[in-house]
């Protein structure tokens, strides 16, 4: 796969597919992390004499213009960060950001006509949107077959980081998996059982694993018999492969799902009737932290509890600090996990903080990412 470093871009127009899908609050950018992550590739191209046309989606506008999801605020923030003008939409300039690609219904359909329209704006194509690489859309897959194409700096860094995890991890390799449903993460768990030495389970999915062992989890969120059977199969396969799969031994429980709820720490087999587990407990934090301290490679995806509520954020934040304190090569992905390392102030101590949620999980599962495959087989230079 060609890298943007190897393109001759002087005097040429370059279409850059970035991931600028930032969170908005009252029309303002709530977190500009993805904008900042896109800038190194754009700056490299501009410094080498290229004219850059950047593009991205934002939210789910359902194929029609929606002022609330306009990329105009993103263009303004890019201009502030770069200290130079950023033209927007049909405006012209050395750096231009197109309006939200998903305002056009052809984008998500990977319509060849839209791919051709995008290709007509440039001489070269650079895909730097790892977070959208699992989507076969006109801007991520179709256009790559029409122009000489390359991976941007962020895309290359993401792929290198996951190559470390999947092809050349140092051992012990410890995985932390959280989230709501076993079904959402079972593909990742199945793949990593064959690669990792230890998998640490947290989040609501932990209660499905506990219920599968016959433990009464009270009112804790958990899956039905199908989900529990999936959990049992994962446990059995892990044992067969020599991978240690651990679940919490204590949890923080509450009498209701609210920040002001009554809480206590109990063993997982002593959850009071009607109470629900909303975070891992201190004993589990200590045990998980020991494994992370001894690791040489770490992958973390998914919170340990209801991280958005302060009384139930301690477990997730403790894991964030433990990952950062470890001497292991570490990769953190997923919105809540990334938010946790930022809130804990340890993001700069993580080897790689991934911008990809669904893309990262699909890559770990072993699925082909259309946006990456298109770069490997795209138009010749």
Task: Record the SSE blueprint.
Layout: E1 13-17, E2 24-25, E3 28-29, H1 33-47, E4 51-55, H2 72-82, E5 87-88, E6 95-97, H3 112-119, E7 124-127, H4 138-142, E8 149-151, H5 153-167, E9 173-177, H6 182-193, E10 198-201, H7 205-212, H8 225-241, E11 244-246, E12 250-254, E13 263-267, E14 276-280, H9 282-294, E15 297-301, H10 314-325, E16 329-333, H11 335-343, E17 352-353, H12 358-365, H13 370-376
Helix pairs in contact: 1-2, 6-8, 6-12, 7-8, 9-10, 10-11
Describe the structure in your own words.
This protein is an alpha/beta fold and 381 residues long. The protein folds into 2 domains: 4-156, Rossmann fold; 169-365, Phosphoglycerate kinase, N-terminal domain (Rossmann fold, 3-Layer(aba) Sandwich), CATH 3.40.50.1260. It is 37% helix and 17% strand. The chain has 13 helices and 17 strands. The strands form 4 sheets. The protein has a 6-stranded parallel sheet, with helices on both faces. Helix 9 (282-294) packs parallel to helix 10 (314-325). The chain starts with 12 loop residues before the first strand and ends in a 5-residue tail after the last helix.
């Amino acid at each position: 796969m060609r890298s943007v470093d190897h393109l001759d871009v002087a005097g040429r127009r370059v279409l850059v597919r970035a991931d600028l899908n930032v969170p908005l609050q009252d029309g303002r950018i709530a977190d500009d992390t993805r904008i900042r992550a896109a800038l190194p590739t754009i700056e490299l191209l501009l410094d080498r004499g290229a004219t850059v046309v950047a593009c991205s989606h934002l939210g789910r506008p359902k194929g029609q213009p929606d002022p609330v999801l306009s990329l105009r605020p993103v263009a303004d923030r890019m201009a502030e960060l770069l200290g130079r003008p950023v033209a927007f939409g049909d405006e012209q300039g050395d750096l231009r950001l197109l309006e939200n690609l998903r305002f056009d219904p052809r984008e998500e359909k990977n319509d060849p006509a839209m791919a051709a329209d995008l290709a007509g704006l440039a001489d070269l194509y650079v895909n730097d949107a790892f977070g959208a690489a699992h989507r076969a859309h006109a801007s991520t897959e179709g256009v790559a077959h029409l122009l000489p194409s390359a991976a941007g700096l962020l895309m290359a860094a993401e792929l290198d980081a996951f190559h470390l995890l999947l092809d050349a991890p140092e051992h012990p390799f410890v995985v932390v998996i959280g989230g709501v449903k076993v079904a959402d993460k079972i593909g990742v768990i199945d793949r990593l059982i064959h690669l990792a030495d230890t998998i640490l389970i947290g989040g609501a999915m932990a209660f499905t694993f506990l219920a599968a062992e016959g433990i009464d989890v009270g009112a804790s969120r958990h899956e039905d018999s199908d989900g529990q059977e999936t959990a049992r199969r994962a446990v059995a396969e892990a044992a067969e492969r020599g991978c240690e799969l651990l679940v919490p031994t204590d949890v923080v429980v509450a009498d209701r799902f609210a920040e002001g709820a009554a809480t206590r720490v109990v063993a997982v087999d002593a959850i009071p009737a009607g109470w629900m587990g909303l975070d891992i407990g201190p004993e589990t934090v200590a045990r998980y932290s020991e494994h992370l301290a001894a690791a040489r490679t770490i992958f973390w995806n998914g919170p340990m509890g209801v991280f958005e509520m302060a009384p139930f954020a301690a477990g997730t934040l403790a894991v964030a600090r433990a990952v950062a304190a470890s001497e292991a090569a570490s990769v953190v992905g997923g919105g809540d996990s990334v938010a946790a390392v930022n809130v804990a102030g340890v993001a700069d101590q993580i080897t790689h903080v991934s911008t990809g949620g669904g893309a990262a999980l699909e890559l770990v599962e072993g699925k082909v990412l259309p946006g990456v495959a298109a770069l490997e087989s795209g138009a010749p230079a």
